[in-house]
């Protein structure tokens, strides 16, 4: 990602954009016809954004295209949060924003002015593990570990959702008591894919934190 | 992703004005569909209008006894809302059958209605697709069409609308409230909201350019037993092959809308007259004009059997 402070449009970039602009001026119907040609002349635009990450106030000037995931990893160097698919299909990028777990790859950094973001680094550290982190270690809830930060952020939020009475697809009675059964945990965690297939140990780790078994 | 300028708006009027001012503008809500498509450069807005700060995130009772759902209400919150769970369980169930916990926390009511097809050729920018590039041809016709539509299709496009939520809203006779770029408000029934492809598959809804969805209104509850049954290739976190949304009354009458089979939530009120005669009678009516491909012919049988099991459950 280009740092805006150090962004220095090269002579070539400028010439390309001037040339494209000239073409567009000469053929406005082409410009209207679609993104294809018109977009060639687009310059990146930057915008400021301020949010809190793991309790610390952060301010950035970002290319508007920067996802929250890339802002965390590339700009704030919080590389615990992982990029798996970059399309909402794997859950590796799951972080907790204003109390809700979301896919940080499908949201823009600039959309989070004033947000409170919690990443895996904010849940705990090696000397002071979050209970969910400790349970994943105890139950071997991973092999390669790539999906693990997303799994753990998702798991923490999943238990909060059950406590708050948010129903799931497998909840039989929409007004009954919500319990952290294996079926509930599996369904609610289905947005987190594990290529290593550590699922059964992940369920055990979450069930333990839910207080269901020791 | 193509570069774009970005602004936050605070009121629907501001949003409409911003849309009127910028030709290449798009609204962004949860971003879970739009950003996915922008990364692939299938969508290339020059300007994004962030509507997340509009005060359209409430669910309120209407004077008629229904519910008015703000455009920005997140799918999780809508499914968990007490009134929705009690009186519109069909909607709660459809929402919970869609996407993942993370995605539902961001996805909004308006964004869900406006999500675009999951046709694999629409996503593959190396292939012709009339929806993505009007006039380029349809790769799905004669291609791999197992997931695609069997009814309501045209020679230009056989894509399905992928939303679960919209199928329940169709059965519930929801009404979409909008604000046009000029500022005037209007309402569009959910039946008229999504369009069939015809010769213009890139035109997907009745919305005008820059028209903002403000809310979706549900009429007063109709009672009955609500069942949403989604059949898919894996048990969770997958789009529907076929889904059935049914409301069944004690006397056996009711309503049925089907997802995964058409370019819009598929409901034919006339076919519901046959509810008491069983699933086959209803699906015969729903699929009377079907034009399936060799790959997706199975969806008719699947829809019939799914409805059969739903009716059994509802009457049981
Ligand atoms: C991996 C994955 C799996 C999924 N599985 C399912 C599934 O099983 N079932 C299902 O139903 N869905 C599924 N989805 C889709 C998901 O439900 C949609 O992405 C989501 O509902 C879109 O809502 P959003 O608020 O994020 O929309 P955005 O991405 O913000 O916007 C979508 C469109 O709506 C427009 N828009 C947004 N708000 C307004 C407004 N107020 N007025 C006018 N226009 C507006 C935007 O301009 C854009 O064109 C899945 C998505 C992913 C990524
Ligand atoms: S079915 Fe529609 S979306 Fe799919 S390739 Fe054909 S035109 Fe495109
Ligand atoms: S990286 Fe975000 S869901 Fe895969
Ligand atoms: S531990 Fe390897 S992907 Fe989950």
From TrEMBL, chain A:
It catalyses: an aldehyde + A + H2O = a carboxylate + AH2 + H(+). CDD domains: fer2 (cd00207). Residues 47-123 form the 2Fe-2S ferredoxin-type domain. The keyword Iron-sulfur applies. Its EC number is 1.2.99.6. GO terms for cellular component: periplasmic space. It is found in: Periplasm. It comes from the Bacteria. GO terms for molecular function: 2 iron, 2 sulfur cluster binding; carboxylate reductase activity; metal ion binding. It is an enzyme of class 1 (oxidoreductase). Keywords: 2Fe-2S, Iron, Iron-sulfur, Metal-binding, Oxidoreductase, Periplasm, Signal. Transmembrane segments: none annotated. Its main location: periplasm. The keyword Cell cycle does not apply. Pfam families: Fer2, Fer2_2. Oxidizes aldehydes to the corresponding carboxylic acids with a preference for aromatic aldehydes. It might play a role in the detoxification of aldehydes to avoid cell damage. Heterotrimer composed of PaoA, PaoB and PaoC. This is Aldehyde oxidoreductase iron-sulfur-binding subunit PaoA.
Automatic annotation (TrEMBL), chain B:
Pfam families: FAD_binding_5 (PF00941). Coiled coil: none annotated. Residues 1-223 form the FAD-binding PCMH-type domain. SUPFAM superfamilies: CO dehydrogenase flavoprotein C-terminal domain-like, FAD-binding/transporter-associated domain-like. The keyword Flavoprotein applies. GO terms for molecular function: FAD binding; oxidoreductase activity. Keywords: FAD, Flavoprotein. InterPro entries: CO_DH_flav_C, CO_DH_flav_C_dom_sf, Diverse_Substr_Oxidored, FAD-bd_PCMH, FAD-bd_PCMH-like_sf, FAD-bd_PCMH_sub1, FAD-bd_PCMH_sub2, Mopterin_DH_FAD-bd. PANTHER family: ALDEHYDE OXIDOREDUCTASE FAD-BINDING SUBUNIT PAOB (PTHR42659:SF5), XANTHINE DEHYDROGENASE SUBUNIT C-RELATED (PTHR42659). This is Xanthine dehydrogenase family protein subunit M.
């Amino acid at each position: 990602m280009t740092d805006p402070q150090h962004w220095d449009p090269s002579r070539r970039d400028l010439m390309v954009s001037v040339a494209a602009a000239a073409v567009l001026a000469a053929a406005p119907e082409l410009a209207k016809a679609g993104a294809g040609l018109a977009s060639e002349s687009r310059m990146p635009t930057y915008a400021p954004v301020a949010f809190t990450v793991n309790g610390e106030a952060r301010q950035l000037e970002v290319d508007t295209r920067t996802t929250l995931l890339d802002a965390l990893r590339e700009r704030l160097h919080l590389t615990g949060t992982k990029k798996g698919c970059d399309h909402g299909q794997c859950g590796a990028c799951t972080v907790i924003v204003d109390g809700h777990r979301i896919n940080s790859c499908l949201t823009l950094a600039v959309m989070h002015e004033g947000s409170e973001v919690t990443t895996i680094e904010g849940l705990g550290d090696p000397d002071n593990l979050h209970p969910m982190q400790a349970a994943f270690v105890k139950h071997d809830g991973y092999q390669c570990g790539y999906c693990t930060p997303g799994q753990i952020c998702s798991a923490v939020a999943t238990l909060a959702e059950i406590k708050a009475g948010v129903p799931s697809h497998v909840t039989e009675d929409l007004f009954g008591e919500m319990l952290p059964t294996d079926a509930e945990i599996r369904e609610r965690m289905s947005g987190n894919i594990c290529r290593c297939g550590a699922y059964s140990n992940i369920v055990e780790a979450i069930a333990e934190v839910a207080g269901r078994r020791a | 992703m193509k570069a774009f300028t970005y602004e936050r708006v605070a009121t629907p009027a501001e949003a409409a004005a911003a849309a009127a001012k910028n030709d290449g503008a798009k609204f962004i809500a949860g971003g879970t569909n739009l950003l996915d498509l922008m990364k692939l450069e299938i969508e290339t807005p020059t300007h994004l209008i962030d509507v997340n700060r509009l005060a359209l995130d409430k669910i309120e009772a209407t004077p008629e006894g229904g519910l008015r759902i703000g455009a920005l209400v997140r799918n999780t919150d809508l499914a968990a809302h007490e009134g929705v769970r009690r009186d519109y369980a069909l909607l709660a169930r459809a929402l919970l059958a869609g996407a993942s916990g993370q995605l539902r926390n961001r996805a909004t009511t308006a964004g869900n209605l406006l999500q675009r097809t999951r046709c694999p050729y629409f996503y593959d920018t190396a292939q012709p697709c009339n929806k993505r590039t009007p006039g380029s041809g349809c790769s799905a016709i004669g291609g791999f069409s197992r997931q695609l539509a069997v009814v309501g299709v045209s020679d230009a496009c056989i894509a399905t609308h992928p939303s679960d939520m919209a199928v329940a809203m169709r059965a519930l006779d929801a009404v979409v409230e909008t604000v046009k770029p000029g500022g005037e408000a209007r309402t569009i029934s959910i039946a008229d909201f999504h369009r069939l492809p015809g010769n213009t598959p890139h035109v997907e809804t009745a919305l005008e350019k820059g028209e903002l969805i403000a809310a979706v209104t549900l009429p007063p509850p109709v009672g009955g037993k609500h069942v949403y049954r989604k059949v898919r290739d894996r048990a969770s976190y997958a789009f529907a092959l076929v889904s059935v949304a049914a409301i069944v009354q004690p006397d056996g009458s009711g309503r049925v809308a089907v997802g995964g089979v058409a370019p819009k939530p598929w409901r034919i009120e006339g076919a519901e007259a046959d509810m008491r005669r069983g699933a086959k009678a209803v699906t015969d009516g729903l699929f009377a004009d079907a034009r399936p491909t060799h790959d997706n012919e199975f969806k008719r049988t699947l829809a019939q059997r799914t409805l059969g099991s739903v009716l059994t459950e509802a009457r049981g």
